[in-house]
Amino acid sequence: MNLPGDLRQAWRTLCARPGFFATAVLTLTLGIGALGAIFTVYDAVLLKPLPFADAERLVRVTREQPPAQRSTISLQAFQEWRDRSGAAFDAIGAFSDDTRNLTHDGEAQRLNVYRVTPGFWDVFGQPLALGRAFGDEEENRSERVVVLSDVLWRNQFGADPAVIGRDVELNGESFRVIGVTSAAFRYPSDAQVWIPTFLPGDTTFHRGMNFLRTVARLRPGVSAAQAREIMAPITDWQARTYPDHHANLSAGVTELKAFVSGGVRQPLGMLLVAAALVLLVACANLANLMLARGQARAQELALRSALGADRSRLVRQVLAESLVIGAIGAAAGLLLAGPAIAALTALAPDLLPPYNTPAIDLRVIGGIAAVALATLLLFGLAPAWRAAAADPLQALAGATRGQTGTRAQLRGRRILVSAEIALAMAVLAGAGLLIDSLRQLEAVDSGIGSPQVLTASISITLPVRQPGDDNDEWAARAIGQLKARLDAIEARLRELPGVASVAIANRLPASGDWGWNSRFSVPGRTLDDQALAEYRFVSSDYFTTFGIPVEAGRAFDASDGTRALLPTEVLVNRAFATRYLAGADPLNESLVIFGDQPKRIVGVVADVHQAGLDAPPNTEVYFPISKAAVGDLAVAIKVDGDALAFAEPLRRALREVAPDVPVHSIRTMDQVTGATLAMRRFNMTLMSVFAGVALLLAAIGLYGVIAYTVGQRRREIGLRQAVGARRADIHRLVLGDGLRMIVPGLALGLVGALAIGRLIAAQLYGVGAADPRVLGTVAAVLVTVALAACAIPMRRAARVPPMEALRDG
């Protein structure tokens, strides 16, 4: 066996047939490139371990308390978990998100800050590159210390090691830097700064204040399921001891890897299946090419066999050609996968967990090499064996008659084309369902009636809370200062030419953000244990600016929120009134939330799809923005004309009135609501690309077989024309050959389409997994493309000169 010699000979042979060579390589490149790109992303997100020490032992521990699922826990409840769960966890910590303004070199920058307990650092194995993390000592003394992320340390402090011990200013408070995390550590993924949970001046966190997210490291040999069993007696004790806060409480324990990637597991799995189907179409096409190539070479191989070459030598030579095609196709597929991966990550920058960056590495190269080898063995060996096993005398006799294939071989090629059509229809059906689903979602009324609205996020520094400060006094001072600043911002924005109204809120509507929620009561009514309402703080022109109708009563006015420290007036949405105030006039009702003083309902507003267009409206309560001691806010302006044209005037006006306030995320409301569909648009786009590739490959395969059949039947066609057959008769003859592949392919494709529909059912909205309209459209598209693939061979067949065809035959 001389492999280098076989490969050299294969290269020369293939170069002598550049059309076949290029088509085979391109077919394999498309199939492997598509699968390689998706597999690389799938591998990085779902298969590779997280880049943390003992990553397989890291878990999230969550509050399961209907209607809350995978939710946060109070400080007191967490401390009880920490103290009693030693049999399950080596370390357990908690964290909560925050934002602060970093003042550095005279510039204010908004930072993502996380308040964490000391155990947080133990869970991740003390991932510090410089200095140290804070421990129980700093926590107990409520010291203002800070750990910086590696990225922030490099970007803001020039990677200066002397930053340790230096003071930095966050929201006007001085924090001492005691550590910098390692470059590989990012948890949570957007964290820039970590500070202790307790800070000077913090008041006691009450048991009903659920704000902490819990992360832990399992003890060796303990599984997540066993940890849940260990946690069960702890949560049962909490439910019995504190029924007002912990009734029906249990603890969920989920592997951290599954927790951070759970939202993309099903979509990526769906796309991986689609890419695999595209590869199968490519494989069938490649097998068809190899069969055609083998039939065309039958005389050559027969002659070599007659001269003494044994079958193994001939098989080896044909397989060497397959190996060359596979190696070049795999390499080209890798080259195609690179930019495809970049396009994927650019298409979904905020959708994929960022812990492992998708990149072609040895795992991916090995996987693609294995796929290429399996493809060639599966679809190249049989044609090679068949070509090498042909009877020399029959092959030479067939060659003298102008025939290079048998009926069985032609039937095999037709079966392959039918399989290509079936697979293409399955992928095309998946794309059609996702396209129609997205169209249905885009037609949903979000509840926002104003089209020309521009928004921006701002971060206002609240007054520093000092040790010993009374909570009510601090809140009154913070609310007073914040109101003055918001009044100034609102007044300045109203002065902008073309601005019709201005709104300020703690959350943008229809942004995919559920916001904050709380339990409540309605005097004189008994509510179920799962009564929960989302609440938002909004300005008086909020509903006018966003075009949200006030259906009963009124919106807030300038006097609302000025009569007491806590708000005395609220608005509710239609969903709240329908669910909790059925049979009553909402304007005659009040509710108790935040304190014991009832809040009077002064208006009912229309529902908004706050959590996304595919989520039903939640029950909501609105408070005046003047009562929000919250610095992270959104401003919005309703304008005449193109909203984006106001981006720079908006930024400039905010800088003028509040130069110390960072401004970010300037977007139109169309962009805000559109972002909630990003994952669905990502899925639809990729599935459509795969469907296009599969359709192209199937069309090429069908064209190739029809063209080959016309060539084989050239003498028959000439004879038919000689005895009086018209052009339409020849068209019907060729079309009949095409339909014998198209119809079975459509029938099998329908089964595949139904299977794909079931697979992606969870990704659909407003359309059934077997929607007849979508399936009919897909079948029509496929038939149109298939008939177009038959058109050129059909036209050529009708133009065959009868005498020339008979003479060639």
UniProtKB/TrEMBL annotation:
Domain ABC3 transporter permease C-terminal: 273-391, 689-802
Record field: transmembrane: 20-42, 268-291, 323-344, 364-385, 415-435, 686-710, 741-762, 774-794
Pfam families, per the entry: FtsX, MacB_PCD
Primary location group: membrane
Highest taxon in the source lineage: Bacteria
Keywords recorded for this protein, A-Z: Cell membrane, Membrane, Transmembrane, Transmembrane helix
Domain MacB-like periplasmic core: 22-231, 421-639
Subcellular location: Cell membrane
GO terms under cellular component: plasma membrane
A GO molecular-function descriptor: transmembrane transporter activity
Keyword Zinc: no
InterPro entries documented for this protein: ABC3_permease_C, ADOP, MacB_PCD, Macrolide_Exporter_MacB
Record's bilayer topology term: Multi-pass membrane protein
Presence of keyword Isomerase: no
NCBIfam families cross-referenced by the UniProt entry: ADOP
Family: Belongs to the ABC-4 integral membrane protein family.
Name assigned to this protein: Permease
